[in-house]
Design goal:
The chain is built from 15 helices and eleven strands. The chain is globular and about 60 Å long. The strands form two sheets. The protein has a six-stranded mixed β-sheet with strand order 2-1-3-10-4-11, with helices on both faces. The protein has a five-stranded mixed β-sheet with strand order 7-6-8-5-9, sandwiched between helices. The termini are far apart. Strand 6, helix 6 and strand 7 form a beta-alpha-beta unit. Helix 5 crosses helix 13 and helix 10 packs across helix 11. The N terminus is likely disordered. By secondary structure, the protein is an alpha/beta fold. It has two domains: 193 residues, D-Maltodextrin-Binding Protein, domain 2 (3-Layer(aba) Sandwich); 90 residues, Periplasmic binding protein-like II (D-Maltodextrin-Binding Protein, domain 2), CATH 3.40.190. The protein is 46% helix and 17% strand. This is ABC transporter substrate-binding protein. It is found in: Periplasm. It holds the Pfam family NMT1. Belongs to the bacterial solute-binding protein SsuA/TauA family. Keywords: Signal.
């Protein structure tokens, strides 16, 4: 009788332990999984490491799920991000400044590249110098980095916007507008530069004459940076892994990118684009007095947009730029 009672007590206590253990296990494994980071990017070769990292599985290798959102037109990509359709965007500093002016809940965490000849001013064949642009119509996206680029080129050649007529034209439309004679010059980039040249236009000047003026960056929403810092670090590691892979395997990468984005392989090129390495980023995320520093360049944009009415008030550059994620990748850190 006593033996039977002890067996019953033992069985009862064991059952309680098993139930407790099962409940404990359920609590741990039921934690919801984080959704993929949605990152918007457009047709710009400096953004292509996103495609490589996704297709080669580098994001997964580094421990983060990423859903690239490719939108060919850069203005549409900015609009999509502004509408809250993604967690991050790879785009120009100028576009980020416009976004930040309307919604300060965004921060730059990575410099992807800078235009070093890729952004150009294409002109009709009879225009041979910047002075020949006097009295002409120049197409560029007004209120954006294109206007700053054109204005800077004019100033470097002792001209002002009073010497020309600036016309609001998207980069994709420049070849057709040039061919029709609607404008005599226009700011654009590949593949639209080649389209314009095939139609008889020529490249007059490029960002080779304005080094560091047009940097491209990746910015995340502040809430995502706050809630998912490890995922952001993993994203950046995968970015540099993809960048290194592209440099080591250019032909394979070209084929992969072309297939992923449904473009021609010859449209995949880093000509005129200087990809930003980790060392470049460490310099970019340090305060400075030249375009080598994102802080300095962001101030140029802020002053320009404030002066031209794109921004009502000058933004806080320190809040726009978050150097911590890049600095954590610094060798020895």
């Amino acid at each position: 009788m006593k033996s039977r009672f002890l067996r019953f007590v033992s069985f009862f206590l064991l059952s309680i332990l098993l139930i407790t253990a099962c409940n404990g296990t359920t609590t741990v494994t039921s934690r919801p999984e984080q959704p993929p980071l949605r990152v918007t990017y457009n047709l710009w070769s400096g953004n292509f490491p996103i495609a490589i990292a996704h297709e080669k599985g580098f994001f997964q290798q580094q421990g983060v799920k990423v859903e690239p959102v490719y939108i060919e037109n850069y203005l549409q990509s900015v609009s999509a991000f502004s509408a809250g359709k993604s967690d991050a965007i790879a785009t120009s500093m100028g576009s980020i400044m416009n976004i930040f002016g309307k919604n300060p809940d965004v921060q730059i965490i990575l410099a992807t590249d800078q235009s070093a000849g890729a952004d150009v001013l294409v002109v009709q064949s009879d225009i041979k110098s910047m002075n020949d642009l006097k009295g002409k119509q120049i197409g560029t996206k007004l209120g954006d980095f294109g206007e700053l680029f054109v204005t800077t080129l004019l100033e470097k050649n002792r001209l002002t916007t009073d010497d020309v007529t600036l016309v609001n034209v998207e980069p994709e439309s420049v070849p057709a507008r040039l061919e029709s004679g609607d404008i005599q010059a226009g700011n654009t980039w590949e593949p639209y530069t080649s389209q314009a040249v095939k139609a008889g236009a020529q490249v007059l000047v490029s960002t080779k004459q304005t080094p560091g003026l047009l940097p491209n960056v990746i910015a995340f929403r502040t809430s995502v940076l706050r809630d998912r810092p490890k995922d952001i670090q993993a994203f950046i590691r995968a970015w540099f892994q993809a960048q290194d892979y592209w440099k080591a395997n250019p032909e394979e990468s070209k084929t992969l990118i072309a297939k992923t984005l449904s473009i021609k392989p010859e449209e995949v090129s880093t000509n005129g684009v200087q990809l930003s390495t980790l060392q470049d980023n460490l310099k970019a995320f340090t305060s400075g007095t030249t375009e080598e520093s994102l802080y300095y360049t962001a101030k140029l944009y802020a002053d320009f947009y404030t002066r031209t009415g794109g921004l009502n008030t000058a933004p806080d550059i320190q809040k726009l730029i978050d150097p911590s994620f890049v600095q954590q990748l610094q060798p020895g850190s």
